[in-house]
Amino acid sequence: MPRIRLTVAALLLGGLAFSAAAQADTACPDGARCAHLTVPLDRSDLSQGTIDVAYALLPRTDTSRPALGTIVPNPGGPGQSTIASAGLYTGALTPLRKRRDLLLIDPRGTGQSGALPCPSLAARDPLSLDYAGVQAVCAADTGPRARFYGSAAVADDIDAVRASLGVDKLDLWGDSYGTYLMPVYAARHPQHVRSIVLDGAYPIAFDPWGRDVLRGTRRVIGLVCERTRRCSGPRVLEQIEQLARRLRRHPVHFSAESPIGRVPLSIGERELANVVYGGGHPEVYGLLPAAVAAALDHDYAPLQRMVAVDRIGQAGSLLLDPSVVSFGGQTATTCHDYPRPFSLAATPAERRAAYDTALAALDPAQFAPFSPDAWLSTGIEGGPKCLDAIADPTAGSPVQGLAMPDVPVLVQSGDLDTNTPIEQGRLAAAQFAHPIRGIVANAGHTPDLQPCGVAMAIDFIEHLTTDPDRCRHAGRPPVVAGRPARRAAELASGPVRRAVAVAVATLADARTAATYSGMTGSLDALRGGTYVVSEKRVRFAGARVVSDARADGTFAVGTGIARLRLRGPGVPHAVLTLTATRATGTVAGRRVAVRLP
């Protein structure tokens, strides 16, 4: 839902560089025929003007035979450019593209279709804004024009492009928000739908309080523990609840390395809830059990890393060029279409009163292990989002009064997805008469990013049926990490083994920091110092994975060779060279050669 499928690391220029926002690649995709179609901004009131909708048509690779169909994907958001996301589909859908055309359409308000900017974000500290705050800023920027950017209008634009190209029927492929948009198209233009793939699906009428997402989050924690046998789901949830109560009363303040230097951050109950939500990334649940257990023991270092990655990543996403991801477009769509616990036609003051009354009537236990306020402040779509949007009497469900067509539908869910969990996928499938519901094991958001998930969807489009159980045993759960040592002596006994263990743990922590954050640049080591990560090497600058030892040196990515100098009260002075199998060098002036497991 609000989570963007493209990673911040892939979009920000210079890795972590906040000094310049990412720029969209506005070039027409290789081999595509690109154009714009002018459509009314408001089809019920032509005096409102027009908007140009951009599209890119990639013809089938075998033009010697007639096309078998036309695939129209949407990558999600809302607010994400489909044309800029061409790479998500051109490679993955290669088996289909031999006989099928691929039609990429930027929804109005995104990409090359008049991307809605949100200029006031530039004047705000991005670390001070949560998702609801971003919506409030962008709603004020967009103003009353936001009503022109609902999913019904986008669906009608898609159909206008279809008609202009003389295409009869479409194979619809929706990811994330696309699983909301494509049913809207199907309900409004049923005669032009051949098939629908909904990947990472949620229904038109989802729970405006996010309780379905929370149920999915609790289930995913239990699944990861059960599959890895490295933790107990009930125990982890119990510890999260204990920690949430503590942080509600006593937040923890710290600082973290960012592209603009060190920035102050906090861990309160809200930050904990956002980390636990995870946004559909299964790797979170490999790190969470140990981070929560350590925090209960007043060792906050692992949790600080998770909060820092979450907050800095969110802040970085706000600097994306609006032609890549438009937060103005996202706000306009979600504050027009999505179910809310208040009327979007009401004034902001009336909405707040209705929201407070409705929230007070709910059982707080439904939001365990958090307080309602903490859970509803996360990046989920439910709760107090859109409270400050301009009153819109045209807002509401884009399929009101319409029926879904009985067409072939595949609804896919990753069983470790906490963004649009299988609890929502079940309801998305129930919108249709004869859906095929595929569960992709160990996949997050969205499962067509996994080999088995995309193979299932391709098979479905080719045959209009598929085995829904083909991915029930796909993939692997995330590795569940153990609690990190606080001192060198906890890693190994004896000076040589201890020095080698610290060196190995430092390399492992650098890999965890870079992989989990998805970023390059300066990253905090677990207990102090930094890793400076680039494509070719990692530089260690006073990096501490334990409190009583520090490491300086380099790791060459191409060769896999690390050279580290260790010092500190917990280890003898050591100069070590490490490969995948051996550690050689000196420890306390003596030459050593240790075989690594």
Automatic annotation (TrEMBL):
Family annotation (SUPFAM superfamilies): alpha/beta-Hydrolases
InterPro entries reported for this sequence: AB_hydrolase_1, AB_hydrolase_fold, Serine_prot/Carboxylest_S33
Query: In what residue span(s) does the AB hydrolase-1 domain sit?
Result: 71-208
Alphabetically ordered keywords of this record: Hydrolase, Signal
Name the chain's protein. Alpha/beta hydrolase
Asked if the keyword Signal belongs to this entry, the reply reads yes
Q: Name one Pfam family in it.
A: Abhydrolase_1
Could you tell me which PANTHER family the record lists for this protein? 2-SUCCINYL-6-HYDROXY-2,4-CYCLOHEXADIENE-1-CARBOXYLATE SYNTHASE (PTHR43248), TRIPEPTIDYL AMINOPEPTIDASE (PTHR43248:SF29)
**Entry similarity comment:** Belongs to the peptidase S33 family.
Q: Name one GO molecular function term.
A: hydrolase activity
Q: Which residues form the signal peptide?
A: 1-24
